[in-house]
Amino acid sequence: MRTVFDQTNGLPTDEANAVLQTRDGYLWVGSYGGLLRFDGSEFHNFSTEGAIATPSIRCLFEDSAGRLWIGSSDAGVFVYENGVFTAVPCTKKNSYLSIRDFAEGRDGTIYVASTSGVCRVRSGLLVPYSNPYITGETAYALGIDRYGRLWCAMSTGKCAVMQDDRVLAMLDAELFFEDGSAISCLTSDRANNIYLGTNGSALAKVACSGQRLDGTAFIVQTYEVTDAVNHNRIDVTAEGDILVSGQQGFAWVTADGTQRDPHTGTSTDAVNCAALDSRGRLLCGTYSELGLVRYDTGGGEIVFFNQSNGLGSTRIRVAFELRDGIVAVGTQDGLALIRGDKDVAFYDKDNGLETQSILCIVQAPDGTLLAGSAGSGIYALAQDGSITKFSYEQGLEDGVVLRILQEEDGRSAFVSAGSHLYYWADGTFRRLDGLRIGPGSIFDLYKRDGKLWLLQDSGIYALDKARILAGEMPHATQYGTARGLTGSLRVNTCNYMPPDGSLYLATRNGVSVFDFREISAPMPPLVINSIRVDDRTYESPERLTLGSDARRMTIRFSALTYSGATDLCIGYQLVGFAKAKTYTVGTWLEVWLENYAKIKLRPSTYKTSQGFLKNHIKPQIGSIPLADLTSLDLQRFYKHLLDGGRVDRIEAKKKPKGLAPKTVRNIHQMIGSAYNLAMPRIARRITKGLFSTVENSPFETPRERKGLPPLDPRTAHIKSPSQQPCV
Asked: What's the burial of 93, exposed, middle or buried (CB within 10 Å: 0-12/13-18/19+)?
């Protein structure tokens, strides 16, 4: 999956102004929700924590020394170096606060573009350029040419060129463009060529062949970027491709000037389907007077199929090319066959289609066309023109057929109808129940590697096909937003599978690319974010020596991966650490909760567990050495919780004094899970002894049962933690 982050999975805002991966592997996001750093598992918001004085971040830049420069929308410039954020004040107080861009000169000087003009960083201060053409004008973007000169796109539509403390020239757009365009943005590539964007669709690449700035030393190559108008940002890849984003659209121009994936410019009210035929022509089904639009991507020819040439309906639902080159078109009003450019046959209710809305089309090995309808099951159109219906009489209980997926033998198929999945063989339908997938219709079906892949609103489910056909209930693996899906899937959308076998999915929030293969990726780099020893925090230490007086240590570490690998599980072990007797129950539960449980618990569950530790475990048994805890200690603790363990709060005055048995069971499971991870030696003793399940007590071992008070019947059904899933 290609992962997209939004408010549903940790990003505090759906708007990202800047994204930058620094050389240490971290992914930084500048947004109006704060400065965020993604470590592969979660977003760390430095703005909300007060490390940086503003949540409004406009631009990010990493210089050659590895420093991260942060431009805010309202608080100026900050720099992140050696784990510390520092504000960069301006020599002109309360000015140069809204930052737009950064650039680095050949001598390491950092230049800053802002709504107040241009400045450079000297001795930890922003020093503005003082020039009537610059001061007070908005500077949009910066670049460095081959002579080390700073180019700046100004709000006046001109380009300022500066060096040292001087403004060398203010260049008009007419030096580079003949259509009267104004310069709106710029950037430079690794070879220090300058790229200029405009308020139109024209783009220029400028190579300086000399130091003169009158145009005689410029080698200009212009592009007409039809997919992006009114440019606001240009980026150049390492391969030389030009990425242009504008107020209207986005364009990708290759190094040789070719515009990738150009749009046809055809305006439609709605496009319900899109497909490529065997000749590489694009078929677009619309819900407008245009009907079916066929676009030749090579020659640029556009052909319209609609009521003017016999299509019979312009409300297109699906288009499918048959093996002989005929294009079958399912419409809201019937089924059409298109031969060549004009010959159209149309089938509707006069030909036996009780339900004329056609949702899906496939072709059987014998050439029969199978069309799923929106209410009458499946219509089979034979090569002689006869139509046969397969529906309720053959065991299909749902008439709305969304997809038909044929088996390799050509005599059977999986059919998605209504909210059920059917197997169609020997002329009859068998409903496949017990799939253990989400509720709702199955929008699409695929087979790969012995599995059946089902697309639903909540994502993609993978199930073992053989077990489904055997009537078993196989485990279903879900691939949803947690694994990179950009949003929920939608019915009546068109997914696309190119020759490489990947699947392009249309979702409510964009397009996801799904690879059916299990990707074997190398272990991502692991980094230590910080180590907290007692009351002191060490940020990203390479080496740390602890004194004998250290009592508590918390390590924050991450795997730097951005592939949405939710199954990644990492941990750490302290080799040669002091024996477990140095831990008390309370201190170990704190370590366990912060470093082991937190990465797996939902936020609400983690907060509840913190309350258990603070309000119940630490006050009652927290001071007991970990290795000395006995079942009698636990028995007394649980009895106390049941009899009068409720925290004395105003809102709890009218409630029973004791905790509910379910709450006590949750505390019991929490303690058991923590013990199982304490140390291998102790874990074996705990599993075999302290938490062993016996006939009368889930807390006592047979050896310790004698002389203990009888188990409270309210907790008699609590299972051993070893029989429950660990947190």
From this structure: exposed
Residue 695's pLDDT band, with cuts at 50, 70 and 90, is very low
Q: For 647-655, what is the mean pLDDT?
A: 56
List all residues 6 or more positions away from 106 whose beta carbon is below 8 Å from its beta carbon.
Answer: 144, 148
Indicate the range of 400-404, 416-420, 444-448, 639-643 predicted with least confidence.
416-420
Tokens for 185, please give them: 């943005």
Q: By the 8 A CB rule, do 683 and 677 touch?
A: yes
CA dist 360 and 492 (Å) reads 10
**Which residue is associated with the tokens 């309000």?**
615
pLDDT of amino acid 566: 47
Phi-psi region of 158 (alpha: psi -120 to 50; beta: other; left: phi over 0): beta
The burial of 332, by beta-carbon neighbours within 10 Å (0-12 exposed, 13-18 middle, 19 or more buried), is given as middle
* pLDDT on residue 487: 72
pLDDT of residue 357: 84
Question: Token pair of 22, please?
Answer: 């620094």
**Using CA atoms, how far apart are residues 655 and 204, in angstroms rounded to an integer?**
74
CB 147 within 8 A of CB 211: yes
What distance in Å separates the CA atoms of residue 53 and residue 46, rounded to the nearest whole number?
9
Q: Are strands 242-248 and 250-253 parallel, antiparallel or unpaired?
A: antiparallel
CA distance 378 to 417: 10
How far is C-alpha 216 from the geometric centre of its chain's CA atoms? 48
What region, left, alpha or beta, does residue 235 occupy, with left being phi > 0 and alpha being psi -120 to 50 degrees?
A: beta
Sheet harboring 387-390: ordered strands across? 358-363, 369-373, 378-381, 387-390
In this prediction, residues 188-205 reach a mean pLDDT of 91
**Rounded Cα distance, 205 and 76, in Å:** 31
Distance CA 90, CA 139 (A): 16
Report in angstroms the alpha-carbon separations of 374 from 63, 113, 207, 371: 59, 58, 60, 10
Residues facing 69 on adjacent strands: 61, 79
Secondary structure of 484-547 in the HEC alphabet? CCCCCECCCCCCECCCCCCEEEEECCEEEEECCCCCCCCCCCEEEEEEEECCEEEECCCCCCCC
Contact at 8 Å (CB) between 275 and 321?
Answer: yes
Round to whole Å and give the CA distance between 463 and 436: 9
Cα distance between residue 346 and residue 385, in whole Å:
11
Instruction: For 468-524, write each residue's pLDDT tens digit.
Output: 998 888 888 888 877 778 777 776 677 888 888 888 888 867 788 888 875 445 567
Long-range contacts of residues 69-76, Cβ cutoff 8 Å, at least 24 apart: 69/102, 69/110, 70/30, 70/35, 71/30, 71/99, 71/100, 71/101, 71/102, 71/112, 71/114, 72/97, 72/98, 72/99, 73/32, 73/98, 73/99, 74/98, 76/126
**Tokens 């997919």 — which residue?**
227
The predicted-structure confidence for 131-182, as pLDDT tens digits, reads as follows 888 888 888 999 999 999 999 998 888 999 999 888 999 999 999 998 778 8
**pLDDT computed for residue 266 by the predictor:** 35
How does DSSP classify residue 722?
G
Task: Name which of 168, 64, 58, 70 is nearest 109 in CA terms.
Answer: 64
Structure tokens at 7: 């408010």
For the stretch 662-680, pLDDT in tens is 888 889 888 888 877 775 4
Can you tell me the mean pLDDT for 409-413?
A: 87
Strand partners, 662: none
The region that residue 598 occupies, defined by phi over 0 for left and psi between -120 and 50 for alpha, beta otherwise, is alpha
Q: Is the pLDDT of residue 369 over 90?
A: yes
Quote the pLDDT of residue 284: 87
